[in-house]
Each structure stands twice: as C-alpha cells, then as structure tokens.
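Hi U.,

Before I forget, here's the chain from the pilot set. I'm dumping it here mostly so it's searchable later in email.
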Amino acid sequence: MKKILYTILIALFVAANFVHAQQEVGGPNKIWSYPVVYNYDEQVTWYFDLSTTTFVADEEVYLWIWSPSEPDAGNWGNSSEFARLTNEGNMIWSFTLTPTTYFSKTVAEIAASAGFWFRLKDKTGSKQSDVTNVPYTSFSSFYTANELIRAYPEAPTLNGGLSILFNSNLVPGFENVESVHFHSGMNNWAILQEYQAWLPEISEKTKLKNLGNGIYKMDLIPSKYYNNIPDGFVMENITFLMVAKDWFVNSGDQVINAAEFIPPPPPVFRFFPLQISKKDFLGITRINNEVGINKLIYTINAGNTVLTGEFSGNVSEIKGFIDLPTALQDISNINEIHVLVKDNTDRTISDTTMPLKTLD
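Structure:
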C-alpha cells in the first residue's frame, strides 16, 4: 500500500513539474500571410504578431504544426532548424514555406485537410502558445464568377499586402499572350509604376503570375512596390491597366479604393428651374465635384444666337445664372434652346435640349 501511495505521489510530482516546464505563453495577436491569397503549391510567408504573448523580443520561436501533416514529428524537445521562424522585429515573426512541399501533400490533400493547426514554441518545448489555426482564403470562386478584377482585401492599405486577380477571358485579345503586366499608379496616377516593356527589370517587376485558364494574379505591398512616396502620403486609390506584353491589348482603366480613403458622394448636376421661358434666368449647379474640377463652361444655341460663358467654384459647389431675358429679348420664333456644359478638363457634363414655355 505504501508503494502504491509513493508511486502516486511521484506521478503527481512529475506531472506538476511537467506542467510547470511547459509554460503557456498565450495566443498570437494577429496572423496574416503574403501573398494575401495563394494556391497551396505557391510560396507564401506567414506572419505572427506575438505582442500579446509572453515570448520575449529576442526569442527563438519554432513552428510545431500537425495539420495537414507533422513535418517535425518526434522533435518536440529539440525542434529542427527548418521549423525555426524568422524574427522580423517589433514582436513579429515569420515563416516562409510552399505548403505542398513542406507538408509533403498534394494540393487536393491539403484542401481536404482540417487546415493549418499549430503551436508556436521555444526550441526545447518549455514554452508553447495556444493551439491556433493559420487562416486561409480560397479564391476558387473567381474562376467562375464572371468578374474582370477582384482584390484581396477589397480596400487595401499602404503597408499591407494586396492580391489582385484578373480574368483575361473577359477581354478579347488576351488569348495566348506571352505575359500580362500591371501598369499602375496611386491616387489617380500621381505616383507611377509604369509597365516599360523595354526595361527587363521593370517588365519582370510588373509581370502577373499566370495561374492558368486565363486567370492571372498580381501580389504587392504598395509602400514597397511604388517608389518616391512622400512623407505623410495617404493612399486614396490604385488606378491601373492589365496590359499584354508590348501593349498588344489592355483591360481598360480599373480602380481600387484604399481603406484609408472614404470616397466622396457622387457629383450631382442640375438646372433650375426645370421649366424656363425667355424671361427666366437659367441656373446651373454641380456639387461634390472631383478634385481639380473648378469650372463649368456653357454653350447655348438659341436659333442663330450662341451664348457662351463659364462659372467658377470648388469641390463643394460650382454655381451660376445665365441671363436669358437680356440675351433672348430680340429673338422670336424659338421654342427651345440647346445647352452644352463642360468642365475645365473639356469633359461633357450635360448635353441637353430644353423647351421654352410659351408665355401668355
């Protein structure tokens, strides 16, 4: 009986020391990947923000993962070098892998698995994180969605990753092209990264990854991809074309609004009053104007008479009145006027014919 009690006490003592030896450090604050979306046979880097754990800043941290497979099986007490994470600083660690290679699994096998389940640990296993899952975003729906462009995330940030998918099947002329390139700029082309076919390094930088079946992907981090970004820069959008090699064909202008940017309400243009006669002043107004639009330029044809002029304003409003009574007082036998309004970029804002009321 004493031996049994002694054995139980020894077991409890060892168990208590084992629990103490495996210090729980908590779970990652955030996990993300670059590229943002990827196939299982593509190289990817996972990032772990461990600022909410009790790992220390200069700690060597290792990945212990058992799903879809367990590459470092049997080495809990002495993790292999291939499982060591890279310390990126500021309590961020990273791990770069190609899932099919690292797990010795096919794409189909990984897709059918429970996902990427792991702990992070020190080399000897005396510290371990919570059991956690690396999130994975499938983009297989894009292949049949009939969408020209899809962005992950929908609203990117200046310092975050961005993956842009392009379905070239929806643009005639992209069939069998040698390569597709990303001709782009931030904030309506203000900061450019052009596709320059005659420069090999630029051609390579702007080249999209061919995923097969006419689907292409561009991966970038805006703050690293674009050069000469000024201090304090706020990214509002990325404007771009997908371009076949040597500019044989392109996708047409595309835009992705940034997370930092709240799109303004759309412009609104109107005449007032809506019914006019020769004795009325015609009012013109446009609110919520685009940046750089500060004039409305009008041309009015009334019979053989042509009236021209312009109104100035700002982003909030451009507004003015046209003196029809003075301009049309000596003109008879007209029952309508034609009004053409353009902005200061020569873009047509309104092209309309307005009937004139007959006065008693």
